[in-house]
Each structure stands twice: as C-alpha cells, then as structure tokens.
Design goal:
- The chain is an alpha+beta fold.
- The chain folds into three domains: 59 residues; 113 residues, Uridine Diphospho-n-acetylenolpyruvylglucosamine Reductase, domain 3; 50 residues.
- The strands form four sheets. A five-stranded antiparallel β-sheet has the order 5-6-10-8-9.
- The longest helix has 10 residues.
- The radius of gyration is 20 Å and the shape is globular.
- The N and C termini lie far apart (52 Å).
C-alpha cells in the first residue's frame, strides 16, 4: 500500500485522502493488498474537472510512469503507446510525421488512459465523435491480476465498457489509436459574433464544413441583446 496523499480534481471540485501506489510497469507489479472496504482506481495526471479521479479512502494506482511509445505506423497513422503518456507528449511525436490526435479535449495534459476512460470529446464532435471512436484496441489489467487484450472482436463487451468506464473495468496499460492525417501543423481560425439565437443557428449550419466549432451565448444579456454570443471555428490548414 502506498502512502496516503491528499488528491484533488483539476476543477478543484473535491479533495480526498487516498493511498498512492506507483509502478514503472503495472504488467508485472503486484497490485496492492485489498480489504473488504478498499478499492482501486487508476489515476493519471488528475485533469478531470469533476471527482472521477478521486477515490476517497481507497487506493490510487498511479499510471504516470506508463509513458513509453510501443509502435507507430507512419504510413497508416496507427499509434500504440502506454496509457500514462499525455496527449501533449503524443502530439510532439506524431505532428512532425503529418498526423494529429483525432479528438482533443480542453487540455492536452490528460493521459491517454484518462482520455479513453472518460471518452473525452473535442470541438470537432459533430464530425469525429468522441475519443473512443478512434481506439482500435487496448490492454487491460483486471483486479484478478490478469491482462486482457480487448478490441471489437476480442473481449468486445469489456472493450466497450472500458471506453467511458472511468477506470471501473480495470487498469488500461496501453492502447492503439487511429490518428488523423494533416498537411500542416497550422490551423485556420475565425471568430464571429452573433446577436440572436436565429443568427447562431444560421452560423452553425454555415460552419458545417469546418472541423472544429464552439460557441458561447451571453446568458446575462437582456432585452434586445438576448441570444448574443461569439462563435469560433477552425480547420487544419493545407500544406
């Protein structure tokens, strides 16, 4: 059992004491001893807005040392790496090769395992779906100590339950994801204002060909300003 540590969420919603156990490779490291009241929860860099990365009174299995690249097919854009790598670390390697992570959440400092466990979404959700849509396979270590290869054909139910499963199905050791081909590291961006909900709806339809879109509506506006806001859209630039 690791030492107790007060852990919080990135959104500072909650804090709790939990035992921290870290290992260089969770494939071969014995899981902590459990009691009837104890439970395990994988934890990366703790970038969840809410409390899903907090296991009050239980144990955190620290995944940040699972930070190795396993394989990268630069022709097909298939990347396999360990679950403790952050999306920022992945981008540093794949962007120079002409590839991009297909779905990015609000911070690039989440781990690959966290992105899968929370099935994160990005500003391109209308086109790309959530992160789990691009996971081809993963290796999962369960509480029985065994490691399972999971994909759409092998352990398919476990595979589906792990994507968005918040770490409750086991500890993700590594995963293979399909990357997005890009011509440039640059993106073309536009910021546009709208003065009504009707204008926003029209702008939303007009932006259908843009990969990334996000809008803010001023909920404090009154009178003739009701429905005003700002919309941003972006797409990967041509080479």
């Amino acid at each position: 059992m690791g030492r107790p540590l007060n852990s919080g969420s990135w959104g500072r919603l909650a804090f709790a004491d939990a035992a921290q156990t870290r290992a260089a490779d969770w494939r071969f490291t014995a899981l902590p001893q459990r009691t009837a009241q104890d439970s395990f929860l994988p934890r990366g860099w703790g970038r969840s807005y809410g409390d899903v990365c907090i296991n009050s009174g239980g144990s955190h299995l620290d995944t940040t040392r699972l930070d190795r690249f396993v394989a990268f097919d630069t022709e097909l854009g298939l990347l396999r790496c360990e679950a403790g790598l952050t999306l920022a670390q992945i981008l540093e390697v794949v962007v120079p090769q002409g590839w991009f992570i297909p779905v990015l959440p609000g911070t690039r400092f989440v781990t690959l395992g966290g992105a899968i466990g929370n099935d994160v979404h990005g500003k391109n959700h209308r086109h790309a779906g959530s992160f789990g849509c691009h996971v081809r396979s993963l290796t999962l270590r369960r509480s029985d100590g065994e490691c399972y290869h999971c994909d759409s054909e092998n352990n398919a139910e476990l595979f589906a339950a792990t994507i968005g499963g918040l770490g409750l199905t086991g500890l993700i050791l590594d995963a293979e994801i399909q990357l997005l081909r890009i011509e440039s590291a640059q993106v073309e961006c536009e910021d546009l204002s709208f003065s009504s909900v009707a204008e926003f709806a029209a702008l939303y339809e007009e932006s259908a060909d843009w990969a990334y879109t996000v809008s803010w509506i001023d909920c404090f506006a009154r009178g003739g300003n009701v429905g005003r806001g700002i919309s941003s859209r972006a797409r990967h630039a041509s080479g």
